[in-house]
Write a structure and sequence with these properties.
mainly alpha; 306 residues; 6 helices
């Protein structure tokens, strides 16, 4: 090869290699310092797009878990109200049983009636109980519209309310109403029916009429109320159990999604540190060779010296 001084191809090649090795070194350093395998889109364009979608899914999964927990809290609060209502009806049944004592006169029955009337009002008050300002009980029987109070649709995955997304519906519960029917079966559909009907209000007028002594308020009708409350609490417990499993599934899905994203975005420190050491050596070698290549022109100058 000819000895020339106007061009230095060896130095140009060495400079190009130094540029490449230095870029690789910097990129490796960025990966190690950030812990990410993809720090620039050109590192893995497809992987970057996939991990961004997975990251959004993980965030939605976290929100779904919170929503499920809030729904469980609502059901637990609602069950607390139903438990209180059951205790109230149990006390009303006890008062009714005491009115069946033939040795009690109307004055004695009126004393029982005083407690009965305030217990009735307590049941009406329970109907208006709310959770975070949201009514837990519906104002009418048979409400199925999720936009109405007392009906809750809880979406249990990161898909949210997208088409065909899985969800759990908390059906409406009609606890009590002032205008409930006085029959044992009732027409208003409230859980507490005969025990709270307006027909039983007022003073006791005899051992068979008025207030708690009224013959229309039978022990059978009170037992129906107790059974309705027991059924409602059983359904409430079943929903809590289902949402508990839904929460477990949402947690597993979120963890698996995070693991899948990690395999795409996170750097293997052991492998990358090996690459970093290689790029560091190559960069230092390229710089040294470039320095040597820049000296080749001096050989031609030596030939020109006298």
């Amino acid at each position: 090869m000819s000895l020339i001084i106007s061009s230095n191809f060896a130095a140009s090649y060495a400079a190009r290699q130094l540029e490449i090795n230095d870029d690789n070194l910097r990129n490796s350093l960025n990966k190690l310092s950030s812990g990410k395998r993809i720090v620039r889109p050109n590192d893995d364009a497809g992987g970057m797009a996939v991990q961004l979608k997975m990251k959004a899914a993980v965030n939605r999964g976290f929100a779904a878990k919170n929503n499920i927990q809030n729904a469980i809290s609502l059901l637990q609060t609602q069950d607390g109200v139903l438990q209180t209502a059951t205790s109230v009806i149990d006390r009303i049944a006890e008062l009714k049983a005491m009115t069946n004592d033939p040795t009690k006169n109307s004055g004695d029955l009126q004393n029982y009636n005083e407690e009965y009337q305030v217990l009735r009002q307590q049941l009406l008050d329970l109907q208006s109980e709310a959770f975070n300002g949201i009514n837990m009980f519906s104002a009418t029987h048979g409400v199925t519209d999720g936009n109405q109070s007392g009906v809750f649709e809880v979406f249990t995955t990161e898909q949210g309310n997208s088409t065909n997304a899985p969800s759990v519906t908390i059906n409406s519960v009609y606890l009590a109403s002032q205008n409930s029917s006085t029959t044992s079966t009732g027409t208003a559909g409230a859980l507490v029916n005969a025990s709270i009907s307006a027909g039983f209000s007022g003073d006791v007028t005899s051992t068979t009429s008025g207030g708690i002594a009224d013959a229309s308020l039978t022990m059978d009708s009170i037992l129906v109320d107790l059974q309705n409350l027991a059924n409602a609490r059983a359904e409430n417990g079943a929903l809590q159990s289902r949402l508990g499993f839904s929460y477990d599934q949402a947690s597993v899905s979120k963890s698996n999604m995070e693991a899948a994203r990690s395999r795409i975005i996170d750097v293997d420190i052991a492998e990358e540190s090996t690459k970093f050491a290689t790029y560091q050596i190559l960069t230092q070698a390229s710089a040294s060779i470039l320095s040597q290549a820049n000296q080749t022109g001096r050989t031609a100058l030596q030939l020109l010296m006298p």
